[in-house]
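Schema walk-through. Below, the input block comes first and the output block second. Nothing else is stored per chain. Lengths vary across the set, and this one has 262 residues.
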Amino acid sequence: MARSMAGGLIANDWPKKNILLSDPDQAQRQGAEQALGVEIVVDNAAVVDRADILVLAVKPQMLAEVVLEIAGPLAEKNPLIISIAAGIRTSDLVRWIGKEASIVRVMPNTPALIGSGACGLFANEYTSKEQREQAETIMRATGVAVWVEDEALLDVITALSGSGPAYFLLVMEVMESAAIKAGLDQKSARLLTLETALGAARMALESSEEPAKLRHRVTSPGGTTEAAINVLEQGNIDQLFTRAINAATARSNELAEIFGKK
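--- output ---
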């Protein structure tokens, strides 16, 4: 994710000299240097020392260790901190740093890797308007960004857009499988499924109408689409997705409690 963010910034004309990465793994450093052409170091503290904006692109279970290691330099330098570690609350980051800090917490998703991400952002009370704008600029380099004023809503965003790509991939997987079972060859089933999903998403993005209206427009009374929709509705698809979103939201909150105990 850090590499995709750096790549997005470079594509949006950020000078490479203004981007500095750190990674303890030599292979990762070499790969990123070749792909991005930016400086990459081993020492996290060296990045903090030079950063006005620090992105914490660390796995949640490792973040406490990383932040505690650089807490001293962070407290002294006081950069804007952007955390993309899922489930780590801003209050826990402040506690680990040991000082008030400007923090924007972000919930990105994996399509950010191809510049089609959708992320939610929350800024704590120590973050200025200018810093909010800086954080949004950085995240928009990987896709769309939506602000929330209640940090708890990031759990909902985690369930919706953070985990959401897997839901759509599951639907595509099931549709492809059903078409193959009905007699279509695998290659054709795959291509038609993917292009149908892409087309539906583009229609929804480019239309000013809500998805429900677009769906009704392509659902002719007594036609094939209506027959299929009736089966999905009889299977309580709306309740199923509601339960899924609620389960993911609850799990996000549980993980925040677990990871924040350190």
